[in-house]
Request: fold
Amino acid sequence: MLVVIGSSVLVFVIMYVMPGDPVLQMLSGNSTTPEAIAGLRRELGLDKPFYHQFLDYFYQLLQGNFGQSRVNKDLVLPKILEHVPATLMLTLVSALFSIVIGIVLGVLSAIHRNGIIDYAARFIGLFGISMPAFWTGILLLLVFSIQLGWFPTMGSEGWTTLVLPGLALGLVGAGFIVRLVRNTMLEVLGEPFILTLRAKGLSERSVMYGHALRNSLIPALTMAGVMVGELLSGTVVIETVFARQGIGRILADAIMAKDMPVVQGVVFFTAMIYVGVNLLVDVSYTFVDPRIRRLQ
Amino acid sequence: MNTSIPSSSWMKGAALSVALTLWLAGCSAGKEATKENKASSSSSPSVVENVAAAKTVQGGELTYALASSPDTLDPVASGYAVSHRVLRTIFDSLVFQQEDGSYGPWLATEWTVSDNGQSYTFKLRQDVTFHDGAPFDAEAVKANFDHLSETFGLGQARPLLGPFESAEVVGKYTIKVNLSRKFEPFLSGLSSAFLGISSPKALQEHGDQYGKHPVGTGPFKFVKWTENSEITLERYPEYNSAPPAAENKGASHLDKLTFKIVPEEATRIGSVQSGQILAAETIPPQNIAAFKSDSKFKVDQALTNGTPFSLYLNTHNEPWNDVKARQAIQLAIDPEVIVSTLYLGTYSRAWAALTPGILGYNETLENKIKPDLSRAGELLDELGWKKGTDGIRVKDGQKLTLNYLEASPNREKRKDIAVIVQQQLKELGVEVELNLTTDASELLKQRSFDIAGISQVKADPDILTNLFRSDRLHAQGGNNYSGLNDPEIDKLLDEGAIESDPERRKIIYRQIQQVLSDNAIVIPIYVFPYTVAQSSKVQGLKFDLLGYPLFYDVSVGQ
Reply:
């Protein structure tokens, strides 16, 4: 809860002190008289002192009223709700890519430690974390969509439109996971119980996947919670690059237009999603880690 | 693992039905084509027309990628140029501005102007219907003016009407519009899609949600707007009110027109290259050459008329209040280098305060002023600015600095222009301080700059009033960056705004441009072309004076 409230307050303050007068921006390009400017300011309630605007906003928020977009008077909450599914789909697919790529590469890394595969896998991980998602996105676009024509360049319909954007973001998340899985696996593999399992005669495959991997998953799960935050923020840029619908896109456009109500609405919502996901992660520990189950 | 292989008979059956479907589809398409040909050959006797009609393919969909999203599809409430591209396809206007600047009849068949220039009486077409069936008449036009007066002035429409006062219905198909004073650019404003005529029934029905349910008389009917994604339009079969510039006077050749919203340049261009979209706007110079050299594509470039992107020296600041100092700057900046370096030959160099396609453009200014660094140096020497040891000129212990403000640095490589100018002026011994910021409103209001650039889009030379009249400083709502306060110019601008003889108007505006150039108030740099990359399947795309696309004659071949 604190996270949600805190981030909303922070965004409100930032948008308020940010240079740039939204009223002037909205009227720019037309002959603007001082009367027109004052009138619009009054209409939007921007002539009230800071604390007044602040309290107004949160009072309305508590009532479920997220306000109206300054650009076209759309109600913010319904607009967000309409676009959230598309972003969630993208985040889900990206998370899936991250997890699959991350785990596979992480395991390969651990098994073939210090071999070529290890270096290659770690390089891919580094690449994912370091390269900006929009750059990776455009690169994928150029190669797989324009040159090879395997996937569409844009759009939000159909599973084909999810592949490239999902991959672009997925590589970012995979970067986090590869390292983690590799290190945890190596750690676990050094534990005495592994020796016992091998002595028992268990196949190498069983040792690796059945036992070592399972135990490495817990820290990976925690990482997943943090990763969702990264993925959500990545959608802002990726949705614009691939011309997809979603709240990331809405946020990007709203920031450019200094459409405060929309920006705050999206941030508030995103904060809620993030908190929600981390809560789920916490809850899922009880199922994944038997030790915690026993404690409870 | 066991995988079941489909039995061969199943596969044969599937293949057969697919083949059958394809054959039937091909058959019916063929039948339609021959039907079209027969129809056109029976109505137009000349052989040449037959061939031409047969060549224009009927049907199909045009996908057109926009670089940003329209704000609303209510014409009088919209403030974005990108909206105009869509609005023009849904709405017709009362008059049409032709390429030579004159006005042709559109929804208004003829009009008369009162002697004092303050009243326009329009006779309207009697055979036009809105997409929703409502009849087009004087009451409908009046309802539009009422709606305009009610919407808060965020749109481009209200300023276009100038000193508009009222509109009265005089007869079923006659309407009179009253202005508070004479205003020559009035008809130009009326021809804009921002003053397109909406259905009064729809205005009534949708109220403040009308911007999402536009209804006009244009060749395309609004179907759906998926926010941030696309705007779908379909052909209006009863269309009969095409403007004079359209060759196709009836319904569109296209079945469907879809505007896709694709802000990322790489995606927009890539979509055309891969054939996923048939046309895309705003192509950067480096890609224009690639498209032009590929026979599968073509690129159209249309001049956006008004004032070219130019630099304006702040005449309120020392030493730029002295004409010699300004002339020195004028002679030291080489726009040719700027344009050829940054735009690879795809944008044209500008020479005057107005763009070439507009009434009154002074073409004698072309190639007149050539860069002359030594003469520029002499002028500054005369004023007492001598080059110091570091190459920068000094006078009375003060360095010669020029504060360069660029308020739209990310647009059309304007920040790169600033850098090149900085280098060019360094040769002259002027130290340029660059101020590149998108948040320049305060700076412009306070006039805290020595030189700043701007371009404006308008089909009427009266745009110069907004840039040069003494009472149009930024703080007053205008764009008089140079802070010019010249009673002679003010007088000429006022005359131009009310002169009804186009020939006399030309003389007035040519003179204004000459004075501005002689006094180095304006340094024109480039004229911005609106660019559209298209698949070569697309035919018939045209543009109006402002560079906005016209879809009346568009068809999509195979």
